[in-house]
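Changelog entry: the Rod shape-determining protein MreD record was regenerated in this release. Current contents:
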Amino acid sequence: MNRPLSDALLAPGPLMLAVMIVVAALSRFLPMPPNFAPVVAVALFAGAFFAHRGLAVAVPLLVMALSDLALGLVRGGSFMEYFTSSVYAPSLLINYACMALIVVLAYGLRGRVTGGRVLGYSLAGSVVFFAVSNFAVWLTAMSVPGHAACMAGLMPCYVAAVPFFKWTVLGTLFYSALLFGGFAMLRARIPMLRAQTV
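Regenerated structure tokens:
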């Protein structure tokens, strides 16, 4: 795959994957429980199906960053602080790095996508995201107001985040079912999408 990213993205298969990722990201504007988001599922989906590894990492990161920025503009307040405050920036960057890591982990799904494997990777991705994102919160807690548990130590920080973890898992499972299941239906109807990666 030596084609430039822009050329590779405009091929029908990658374009279809990108559109599905954009639609999943747009659902973040709907009222949802906290942490019920497509972040982990999008990373797994991209890693499993984009043939061009650069696109597998770039598309979900770009789409999620743009949706984060749009949410910040629409919702303002603390959400926008992630982009304007040097206090929150390290945590946000670590979350994007974690997402890239999950994409790379999902390379293990290439050509081996089954319901059981998607379930396993979804659970593992949720755990990785929980562990890394809350470590980032703890790392920056000394300067972030409102994170008293994290100022007490790493374990209290993880314990305080446990109620949100169930929503991360449920959101990941929901969006994984939509993305992987939806793409399986498209592949059954469109022969050019049937390659292991597109």
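The radius of gyration is 17 Å.
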